[in-house]
Specification:
Layout (H helix, E strand, L loop, with lengths): L2 H5 L3 H10 L2 E7 L6 H11 L8 H4 L5 H12 L5 H19 L1 E8 L1 H4 L6 H19 L2 E9 L4 H13 L5 E7 L13 H9 L3 E6 L7 H10 L4 E4 L7 H9 L3 E4 L1 H7 L9 H7 L3 E4 L4 H4 L3 H11 L4 H14 L4 H24 L1
Parallel strand pairs: 1-2, 2-3, 3-4, 4-5, 5-6, 6-7, 7-8
Bound molecules: zinc ion.
Length: 357
């Protein structure tokens, strides 16, 4: 806990500071930026049957596998270009208002959409159109990372990377992977060929690994050593391997962590013993994200205003984490430099407001 935290007299001020702090978000699945209301409305529009239209029940899961069933169903309501563009735009607007979002990277899974008739460009073009409009109107930069769906085969993943290379888009800068294999494992090494192809073409890479108690620290090691990722999503089990933790720290490897989702997917309580806190204490480069905001009823703002204090962290930690998100981003160096300058200016203004309060 830092000194600034201790000097504050009212919880409301801390909450306001954390909400107003400019934020990056690196670990955000595009589908999950849809609001609950829009999800239910689109399901109704396209005759997609949801288990319930009560958000309290719709977003109740017991574990990661259970959640993924709901997530895959939700992709079914995203069909028309205007819906994709509107979801993209509205998601930015909401998080600017609620959490001072300034830059975000999105994971998009074309393999979920292709069987429903939306090919790569039909999916990506309207998303990019919506995000560009939001960038123009709201000043929130973005990049897109194409995510391998681990339900599908390694060969399908290689085809996906080839599709990326055949359809170059300046906003699409990286490859990731999410979901679970049909055996409900992470098994990052299964997709090594796709990662090698992506790296050889100059794409940046990341991977979901070491998320749950059942996912070995070895999965994080495979992602780092064999897939040679530029950053790791989750990666919580790394703290159970001190040698790997030291190596990741020494090379400045970034971890895009998602506190709130761990309460469901990993079964953990958010408190000072949380693995994300241990990763921060071990000197790893860590940022906070919402992962699947609508499904976990969170937001990038809430990760800072609620999860961060629950881990026993304060304002100075929050500043370090959001700046670390710029370090871990896949955008170009000029974009990073302008983000750092903007964040520094906003933090100075916030600090002045705090000092005069
Ligand atoms: Zn994720």
């Amino acid at each position: 806990m830092d000194d600034t935290w201790l000097r504050l007299t009212g919880a409301m001020r801390v909450d306001d500071y954390l909400r107003l702090l400019p934020k990056t978000e690196l670990h955000c699945h595009f589908t999950s930026t849809m609001s609950a209301g829009r999800l239910i409305a689109l399901a109704d529009k396209y005759g997609v049957e949801l288990p319930t239209t009560d958000p309290e029940q719709l977003f109740a899961y017991t574990d990661l596998a259970d959640f993924l069933v709901a997530f895959r169903a939700a992709t079914d309501v995203l069909r028309e270009p205007e819906d994709l563009a509107q979801v993209a735009y509205d998601g930015v607007r909401t998080d600017v208002a609620d959490g001072s979002l300034r830059y975000r990277e999105y994971y998009v899974n074309p393999q979920y959409f292709a069987p429903k008739g939306l090919d790569y460009r039909a999916l990506l073009d309207p998303i990019i159109e919506g995000l560009r409009a939001a960038e123009t109107d709201l000043g929130v930069g973005f990049r897109i990372v194409i995510a391998i769906n681990r339900q599908d085969s390694p060969g399908s993943a290689v085809e996906l990377v080839q599709t990326m290379l055949d359809n170059p888009l300046p906003e699409v800068v990286g490859l990731g992977m999410d979901d679970l294999t049909p055996e409900l494992t992470e098994d990052p090494g299964r997709f090594a060929e796709a990662y090698a192809l992506a790296r050889s073409a100059g794409l940046r890479t990341t991977a979901h690994a070491g998320e749950r108690p059942v996912d070995s620290p070895e999965n994080v090691r495979v992602a780092i050593d064999e897939l040679e990722v530029d950053r790791v999503d989750h990666g919580y089990r790394i703290v159970d391997d001190p040698e790997l933790t030291a190596r990741a720290r020494d090379k400045g490897l970034h971890f895009a962590t998602t506190p709130w989702s761990t309460t469901i997917c990993s079964g953990w309580t958010i408190d000072p013993s949380h693995r994300i806190r241990a990763m921060i204490d071990a000197g790893l480069s860590v940022s906070l994200s919402s992962d699947d905001a609508v499904f976990f009823r969170t937001s990038v703002g809430r990760e800072y205003t609620e999860a961060l204090p629950l881990m026993g962290l304060g304002i100075e930690d929050a500043k370090r984490l959001t700046l670390a998100g710029i370090d871990g981003a896949f955008c170009d160096d000029d974009t990073k430099a302008s983000l750092r300058a903007r964040f520094a200016a906003e933090m100075l203004a916030l600090n002045a407001a705090l000092a005069s309060a």
